[in-house]
Amino acid sequence: MLNLRVRSIVNEAVGINSFELVDPLGDILPPFTAGAHIDVVIPGGLVRQYSLCNDPRERHRYVIAVLHVVNGRGGSRAMHADVRAGDDLTVSLPRSNFSLIEEAPRHLIIAGGIGATPLMAMIERLEVLEAEYVMHYCSRSPERTAFRDRLADLVEKGRVVYHHDDGDPAKGLRVADVMQKYEAGTHLYYCGPPGLMEAVGRESSRWPAGTVHSEYFAPPPTVWPLGSTRGVGDEFSVKVASSGDLFPVPLNQSIVEVLRAAGIDCETSCESGVCGTCRTRYLAGTPEHHDFVLDDNERETYVMICCARASSEVLVLDL
After folding, report:
1. CA–CA dist 304, 137 (Å, integer)
2. What's the CA angle centered on 88, arms 216 and 271, to 5 degrees?
3. Is a pLDDT exceeding 50 seen at residue 319?
4. DSSP strand pairing (236-240 vs 246-249)
5. C-alpha dihedral over 261, 264, 266, 272, to 10 degrees?
6. Quick check: pTM over 0.85?
7. Would you say 135 and 162 are in contact if contact means Cβ atoms under 8 Å apart?
8. Beta strand extents in 102-185 (DSSP E only)
9. Lower CB count within 10 Å: N or C terminus of the chain?
10. What pLDDT, on the 0 to 100 scale, is given for residue 251?
11. How many CB atoms lie within 10 A of CB 63?
């Protein structure tokens, strides 16, 4: 964990503030890649994940942007109401579940609202690479569109296209129109509210494997990863490889909850399968994956113990 100081807070749009975090002594910060995020310990003890939205070449600061969600879980409210310039915050090292494929010939980027934050770092990197890309940025109105000053030149060049719907999705981006003709070598990156995520996910389902990349801020209310049977399955047991201890996992508890009750420390953050904090290697058994982070290759080795179940009687964890 890092102790960083809030050097500045900038209002980027209606309800959106950016926070510039620096080392109190002026030291350089650990590097990060486009699409990475950090965990932030918010006043009151809440932990939330926020994407880094500045240029990855910048080693002197991290910049995050936070939308004030009035009816949220309290994290954004605390960031807006209780954090001031000069305050110190504890944050994690950057990590990424949302990687830019730099060698791809071209890139299609779709952002919705605050979902633009990880994508801002991506277009900074693509500019450095002089790569071919276009970003479609969806928001309610210009006043609710963050980073307009940063994006002005790219809008003029046609690399960023705004779509304002005034609260009526029918007036916004026609996802099918921008995705109907797949061009070989194109990679897709998208992040935004549930409706946009569902629409883009549906349209991209026919794209070649490995060309679609997304990041969820929260699990969709009704749509789960392909093959998922979230909430379905019999009781199973987890085995801790280092001790041989075996713990039953009932239907109404997660693996994390069971392990913590047994006195085993488990690092978590979102506890809903979207952040990657609790990724754990498994050594035997057949997990049922219910996360939105791991790809097919990673699922051969890892499991997200905040949300996974198992179809085998025992799941052996490398703990």
Report:
1. 31
2. 30
3. yes
4. antiparallel
5. -30
6. no
7. no
8. 106-112, 132-139, 160-164
9. N
10. 84
11. 22
